[in-house]
Amino acid sequence: MVPHVLLVSAMALWAGNACADERSASLVEVFRETCAAEPPTFARTEARANAQNLPASSDVGTPRTEEGFFNHVKTWKLDAMTELSAAEARGPAGEVVSCGVAGPDALGEEVKQDLMKALGIGPAEREAISADGVRRTSGWYLHVQSQTLILLLMDVTPAGLPGATLSVTYRSKAGP
């Protein structure tokens, strides 16, 4: 009986890893196609979401000031476990745009490995663990169409929990 239980347990663990691997690969592929294939623009991300009839989860921001400063963040549900986000902001340092994909069920380390493979990048150029030891942020510079983007992976691997967010940020205009 014990060998049978061990065999079933081993098969369940293997199957669980296969599902996790598929989930992280899926999250990375959506991110690669939606956010990392070209420098992000809020309008393009929003147009893609609208073309796919994705329901908006949130749409928040601040109105433009006299100086033209503002911020705007919008998220859409890609499926029950995945969100797409777009953000744009203008301040004294210039204008930035970002695009991201989040999955609360994805395993951070597997997402990291799949991300490096899919985008052909090496180990993170910077990595930090939050002061409370819960979150890890891994960062790279990603060169896309002669532009330099900041690529971030934020996950809760240090806490032993699932959950990962991938984002690229692009400084589209320098400040005055």
How would you describe the overall organization of this protein?
The chain has one domain (2-174). Strand 2 and strand 3 (82-91) form a beta hairpin. It has an 8-stranded antiparallel beta sheet. The protein has 176 residues and is of the alpha+beta class. Residues 1-20 have low confidence and may be disordered. It has helices at residues 2-36, 42-51, 108-119; strands spanning 56-62, 70-79, 82-91, 94-103, 126-129, 136-144, 147-155, 164-174. The longest helix has 35 residues, at 2-36. The chain starts with a helix and ends with a strand. Helix 1 packs across helix 3.
List the helices and strands and how they pair.
Blueprint: H1 2-36, H2 42-51, E1 56-62, E2 70-79, E3 82-91, E4 94-103, H3 108-119, E5 126-129, E6 136-144, E7 147-155, E8 164-174
Antiparallel strand pairs: 1-2, 2-3, 3-4, 4-8, 5-6, 6-7, 7-8
Helix pairs in contact: 1-3
